[in-house]
Amino acid sequence: MGSNGSGRFTDYSGSKPVEGNGKSGGSSGENKCEKAFSAMLEEIDRCPYYIQKKDVPAVGEGITISFDKRPIAITKDGLIVGYLPTKFNYIKICLDDGYSFSGRVVSSSSGLVAAVSIDVIPSN
């Protein structure tokens, strides 16, 4: 249980913002908000979708990304499917900046351990 991060100090630029609201990104110059990504969701069996339906979403089901203490994947019906790993915490800033993220379930299993993998694309 819990979150998985990369565990590397290189994830952080170490720089402090010059002015403003305190947000500081990495030094790579790329805008992560504009990149598609894939992720395995976490804590699926503790989320409303699994609790209510006693199952995982089917492959192809649409999802959107939102934020509730950490990034979450939710269905069109508003049920939380699972949490994104902590390496995707930057999505909070993207959402605040007007980006939205949608995608679909690309694999799911409700075997011994519930598992859901998603593909996500941004839009602004």
Account of the 3D structure:
The protein has a single domain, classed as Alpha-Beta Plaits (2-Layer Sandwich). The protein is 10% helix and 31% strand. It is elongated. It has helices spanning 48-53, 91-96; strands at residues 37-40, 62-67, 71-75, 80-83, 100-109, 115-123. It is built from two helices and six strands, in the order βαβββαββ. β5 and β6 form a beta hairpin. The termini are far apart. The chain has a six-stranded antiparallel beta sheet with strand order 1-6-5-2-3-4. It is mainly beta.
Features:
single chain; about 120 residues; Alpha-Beta Plaits; 6-stranded antiparallel beta sheet; about 10% helix; mainly beta
In DSSP terms, counting alpha (H) and pi (I) runs of 4 or more, how many helices?
2
Strands, total number: 6
* Helix proportion: under 10%
Structural class, judged by helices and strands? mainly beta
**CATH-derived topology:** Alpha-Beta Plaits
What is the name of the CATH architecture? Answer: 2-Layer Sandwich
What is the H-and-E element order?
A: EHEEEHEE
List the helices and strands and how they pair.
Layout: E1 37-40, H1 48-53, E2 62-67, E3 71-75, E4 80-83, H2 91-96, E5 100-109, E6 115-123
Antiparallel strand pairs: 1-6, 2-3, 2-5, 3-4, 5-6
Summarize the structure.
This protein is mainly beta and 124 residues long. It contains 2 helices and 6 strands; from the N terminus they run E-H-E-E-E-H-E-E. The protein has a 6-stranded antiparallel sheet with strand order 1-6-5-2-3-4.
